[in-house]
Amino acid sequence: MSTNRWLATGNYFTSYRDEQRIFFTHLDRTIFTFFLSLLFVWPLLFAVSNKYMLVIDNILIAIVAIIGLNIVTGFAGLISIGHAAFVGIGAYTVASFSRTLGDSHVIITHAWPLMIILSGLMGAIFGAIVGLPAMRLKHLYLAIATLSFQMIFSWTINFLEFFNQGQTIPVSRVFWFTGKLDRDEHYLFWYYVLLVVVVLSGFMVRNLLRTRYGRCLSAVRDNDRAADAMGMHPGLTKVYAFGLAGFFAGMAGALHAYVYRGAGFESFTLHHSITYLAMAIVGGLGTLNGSFWGPAAIITLELQVETLAEHAGQIFPSSWNLATALKPFSFGLVIVLFLMFEPRGIANWWRIVRSYTKLWPFRY
Amino acid sequence: MKNRKRMTVAVSLTLIVLFAFTFQAQAGETYKLGLSLAITGPTSDAGDPYSKGVEDYFNYVNDMKLLGDDKIDCTIRDDQYKTDVTKRNFEDFLDMGIVFYLNYSTGSTMALKKDFDEEKMPTIPASFHAGNLEGSTYIFLPIATYSAQAIGLAEYIVKNHKGDTPKVAMYIHPSAFGRGPVSDVEKAVAAGLKMEIVEVVEHGTDLDNTAMLQRLKSKGVQYIISQTIQSPVATMLKDASRLGLIAKTFGEKGKITFLGCHYTGGNDLVALAGPAAENFFWTTSYIVTSEPGPGTDFQLSLAKKYGRDEKTANSHNYINGAMVAQVASECILRAKKKGLKITKESLYEELLAMNGANEFKTVTTVGPVTYSKTDKQGVDTLQLYAVKNGEFKSVGKPFIPEYTGKIK
Amino acid sequence: MSYFFQLVVSGIVVGSIYALAALGFVLIYKSSKVLNIAHGQIIAAGAFIAYALTGMAGIPIYLSFFLSMVITFFLAMSVERIFLRRLIGEPIISVIMVTIGLMSILDGLIFLTPFGSVNFSFPRFLPRTLISFGGVSISWTQLVGVIVTAVMIGGFSWFFKKSTVGISMRAVSDDQFASMSVGISVPRVFGLAWATAGLSAAAAGVIIGNITGLNFETLQAFGITVFPVVILGGLDSILGAVVAGIIMGIIQQFASGYLDGNWGLNGTAEVLPYIILLIILLFKPHGLFGIHEIERV
């Protein structure tokens, strides 16, 4: 350990304990605390319109989901093309309660933290079940097993009367100590809830990765035979990775149902699964901070492209279809260019920036 | 010294701002409206002409000065058929201060129903799903519901069928949009409509319907009512045409007569199915450009004025969008005439008052637009069309289904 | 009984069209181990190019069919050259992700043309009569579809078995480094794989477009619809694609023919392939004809 506890220009680890620390220097911790408190304080200082609050909520929901996807695809190396279905499991857990008990039953409006955790558990159960083929399957074949789950999920929701055949099942607004939330407080309230969930999830995963349960994931990803020889059970590890991913996805789903005040199957289609995958990869697979960058980047990009298309629409006549075509085109182009020039995602830029500032003013 | 200079700047700025505002007041007000729909993504073949219809009609209102010096500014957003994006667009529109909202898909209308009510925002969706109206006060459908359309077709079958009880099958989209009318038609049958629903078929991405058609044929089905989008209907019609199953005249013995609701028909169907679309019966409340009349002239001149291609100009979804825009501008016009301030509340009241002597007659639909507290379907009248030589031609006079009232 | 045979025959016909659509996946996977998610868009592009040539430029349909295959061949090749060449050696998931981005790009390009939101249909060039035998009937379009599939599959099988280029493609799929060391140009092989996939996609597009009419959403959905076929056949086997295609076709026909409408079920043809796929994968993880990598976990 370096003598200066605030700044360290290199690694001074002398024991495994040192290496497992969450914050390496005091400066890290201070910056983190400052940044976190900033996240909590800023909505009190600036009034943000409902639209942008919804966008921010949406980013945070996606972050929770991507933390899960990153566990299974990033850390454990198992491609999942059915993540939106797990998110859907969470949303439909809340929706099932709403359907059987009525949408403003006390359990839904007052015991919402419980509902979120319950949805997470449901997601974990389904995740583990879908992960079972991982005992035998590898690579793309496994990806297709998750795709199958996505399709079966869509069909089930769309077909069963209990799920209102895919039409939106309403979920009422929740109560806080101040009474029932009204429309203006709704998105702000969920911003804080989401922020707490994201911070807790982030710490949970960060801590997980310091334990044997987390490290066995990357061990299995990097070389499953070697992991087997080390006494891990690769099959069970994969199932457990899927379960864990399902847990976060389920929580994200419940939060989605609450924020959007209902669950409809259109929010959990294959298209969304692919978008989640895009977020995870753009953020940077196999990194925790990538789970934050990815959703923020993709959703901001989508908004920017929308504004761009709108400006283009004012310049060019709409019969040219230019403005409408611009939206999917530029969205795809940014993703493709990004992957062509930075396949390791935004997390890699973050890493470069960090190591640069750490050594500053020396270069490497 | 410095202070005085600052003062001058401030005063002059204030004056400019004031002047700008007075100038604006002279130039008339601008009313903000919003439309969120799928211009790309699923169902874009309907959404794209729809958006152009809305855009062109509002431009027409502004260019022809139908509202005097006032202008309508309608923001059109592409949501790619994603409910989450529709919600975001709606929140954005609210921030902009819209006074009237136009929505699109069944899914998003159902999902945002509560928001419309809470915001007291008069809303007209492009989906005519009967379920949109359940538990909602601020949603107004432009024309008769899919259920009414399907019941109308069923009534036409019963009236024109020769022989014993007609056997009918329904061919529907695997979603709420498709399933909606099934239960209502069943209710109509239970309420005394003399026909038998033999089977309800939900289609997928089928490349071959031979077996399905043969099965229905062997069960004695003589009529198939479709409630879906054009492409699956086109595939089915092509197969049926090959098998020689399509009835030459309505209700021909030993053959099958195909019928469909609003989104199954139109020129898009003819474009997809080609000659196989012949004798397809279709119901909607809109006029079609293949039937000459004032509505057709208006539709074509509107499209011509704004340089639309031929396909768009003749699309029934183009006039679908334009008609919704007509209703919205009519409300603004009426509120304005009464000297009311244009707000979502006053427009809502105008919509509710649109009945009796105040009904809204327009050339683009086959009947008047009527709304009231109990009637949230705009045009209750339907018109039956059939394809003759690749064009939709009217069959009989416009009608109002009887059983829609009986099953309530 | 003739109902049963009709289902079987329809299943085989539909299945062989699936196989043709699935062929594009297999060709790309076989050499580069990449799953091309944007395949549906290429299928649609092939169909639209053929229509543009015949319906707008007035070229005879057979010629424009052929030309569209040639154009799509080069289109797919340039897609590989522009977007994927740079990613050789990157993790597979990045490459798959690029194809997802590609999907959006192609969407945008297609929406720039009228085809994105307007429907068309091919001019009729085949007899509208039926080919019937023993109460079972198929259409000329379907017959042509089956013949084209058979020719394509036969041609590609021969190509991979006998021709030098085909053998080099197999070599690359087996071991990139080893094949480089014996002088095979890996980038060229990848380009060729994409090009041939484009060729088969155009053929599939024209045939499907003839059956359903030219609607962008319907056509591009086939990219996903044939996923189970590809997996069931084993990602890298051409024969597997055919057998799996036919199995899936028959399963779908039986599902909609016997299950739908009974026991309150409906629309089972959409989901049954996936359920069966999941079950089969549990017992035969590498599909019916996929290469077994002997490796125990």
Draw up the topology in text.
The complex is a heterotrimer of chains A (364), B (408) and C (297).
Chain A: H1 16-19, H2 26-45, H3 50-75, H4 83-101, H5 106-109, H6 112-131, H7 139-159, E1 169-170, E2 175-176, E3 179-180, H8 183-208, H9 212-222, H10 224-229, H11 234-259, E4 262-263, H12 270-283, H13 290-315, H14 322-341, H15 346-359
Antiparallel strand pairs in A: 1-4, 2-3
Chain B: H1 2-26, E1 30-37, H2 44-63, E2 71-78, H3 83-96, E3 100-102, H4 106-119, E4 123-124, E5 141-143, H5 146-160, E6 167-172, H6 176-190, E7 196-202, H7 210-218, E8 223-227, H8 230-242, E9 257-260, H9 267-273, E10 281-284, H10 294-305, H11 310-313, H12 316-337, H13 344-352, E11 377-379, E12 382-388, E13 391-399, H14 403-406
Parallel strand pairs in B: 1-2, 1-3, 3-4, 5-11, 6-7, 6-8, 8-9, 9-10
Antiparallel strand pairs in B: 10-12, 12-13
Chain C: H1 2-32, H2 39-56, H3 61-84, H4 92-112, E1 130-133, E2 136-139, H5 140-162, H6 164-174, H7 176-181, H8 186-212, H9 216-225, H10 227-233, H11 238-259, H12 268-283
Antiparallel strand pairs in C: 1-2
Report on the architecture of this protein.
The complex is a heterotrimer of chains A (364), B (408) and C (297). Chain A is built from 15 helices and four strands. With 364 residues, chain A is an all-alpha fold. Chain A has a domain at 49-270. In chain A, strands 1-4 form a two-stranded antiparallel ribbon. In chain A, a hairpin with a 2-residue loop joins strand 2 and strand 3. In chain A, helix 8 runs antiparallel to helix 11 (234-259). Chain A is globular. The N and C termini of chain B lie far apart (79 Å). Chain B has two domains: 30-144 and 291-375, Response regulator (Rossmann fold); 146-284 and 384-406, Rossmann fold (3-Layer(aba) Sandwich). Chain B is elongated and about 95 Å long. Chain B is built from 14 helices and 13 strands. By secondary structure, chain B is of the alpha/beta class. In chain B, the strands form three sheets. Chain B has a seven-stranded mixed β-sheet with strand order 7-6-8-9-10-12-13. In chain B, strands 2-1-3-4 form a four-stranded parallel β-sheet, sandwiched between helices. Chain C has a single domain, classed as Orthogonal Bundle (ABC transporter involved in vitamin B12 uptake, BtuC). Helix content of chain C is 73%, strand content 3%. Chain C contains twelve helices and two strands. In chain C, strand 1 (130-133) and strand 2 form a beta hairpin. In chain C, helix 1 runs antiparallel to helix 11 (238-259). The longest helix of chain C is centred in the first third of the chain and has 31 residues, at 2-32. Chain C is globular and about 60 Å long. Chains in contact: A-B, A-C, B-C. At the A-C interface, helix 7, helix 10, helix 12 and helix 14 of A face helix 4, helix 10 and helix 12 of C.
